[in-house]
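Possible regression after last week's pipeline update?

I re-ran a chain I had predicted before the update to compare outputs. Posting the input and the new output here so someone can diff against the archived version. Not blocking, just want to make sure nothing changed silently.
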Amino acid sequence: MSRLGALSRWRPSRLGLKLFAVILSVNVAIAASIFLAVSYSIDRGFIEYLNQAQERRATLLADGLVTRWNAQQSWEWLERAPERWPRVVRFALGQTHNERPSPLGEARDFALRDVQGRYVVRPRPSGSQSDWRWLTLYSESADGRDLQAIGSLGFRSPQHMMERMENHFLERQQRNLFIIVISLVIASMLLAGGLSWWLGGRARALAGATRRLIQGDYHIRLSSRGRDELSRLAQDFNRLAETLEASRSARARWVSDTAHELRTPLAVLRGEIEAMQDGVRALDQENLGSLAQEVDQLERLVADLRLLSQSDAGALDIQLVPMDLSESLEGRLTDADRWLEESGLALSTDIAPNVTVLGDPQRLRQLWSNLLDNSCAYTLAPGALDVQLYIEAHQAVVIWQDSAPGVPESELARLTERLYRVEGSRSRASGGSGLGLSIASALAGAHDATLTASTSPLGGLRWTLRFALLSSR
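New output (post-update):
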């Protein structure tokens, strides 16, 4: 392989690049959406959690302060010794001296006011009043019947503590999530790159093979390993290439054989005409009759070729009407008595009456004539011809079989090929033009019937035709 071929093999295709871009874009969009959604969910959910946690801590601290107030009946114990406030908070929240305080359980996040609104413990650090939420403290009266306000406990709203909390939780969670998203993007790039390279290579191979096929190289084949859609597409491409190659070979053989068939009567005509011009043969009725026979042979050959071309184009002139297949077959065999007698063939029939099908009487008579011509041309005298017609499984079945000689089984499938003869040495006098069975097959197909060949128990060929009954259509 040349260096240029190797480079073109590794060069990415446009389809591969588009696929890479689409897969990568979709994965990046999904990853970004996940990152934003999870970040938003963590942010909002974490704030709600902090609010609930802070309210629970404030309630615990309020219960502890009420208990202490009931014992002291004033806040003087705290006003005289404000340094007690951190210990009071820690004790009320159930924290030991050695335990690291929670970021939401620090003393500076709480404040205390007496019933007149004077600060017993001032907020630290100072800030806007909107940063604080206040919980009124109640204690039972001396007679134990009523509740009296003894002050209010303030606590900072968690929304205004996020600058301190981000260092503990949010930044770490978002950093981890960002790492996960980057890893997902890298994995998507690797996956998209591998998939686009693989698919681009398959598409590039198919495109290259298609170009070679357009240029007439029907020998090209694609690797069809695997069971995916691309493998099936490669298999279909290979079958297409095989079909085109066979069609080109058949067309070339068809043209060559047709030219050969036309050349023979033309050569005979030219020879006889030149003989008359040179005076070798007399210009009389007998020699003119010989020329007329060659012209008739040419006309039949051209007519056969025209019929086959019409059949290939789907333009065969055929008029399907309800008709009696039994009467058509029996009538043609009756008219051929002298022909069969001259060929030395004994005819036996078993034809069921009143078998109705859709058919063209003229074309069916032509079909029977071609089968008769084949049997009379190839069956050795004395020989036999057996024709049967019966109904089987909603079909009209015609069995046409003759006696020896037979045809090798390997050649049976090719008998309806145009201009095909089993023996290349057979002359046109014995073998005809080689189009009769092709025409018979085309006429059968025009009636939606099938024509198949097999070996006959009589030693020759057995043709089986199956027509759909009119009642079963």
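Follow-up from reviewer: compared with the archived run. The first helix runs from residue 3 to 10. Marking as no regression found.
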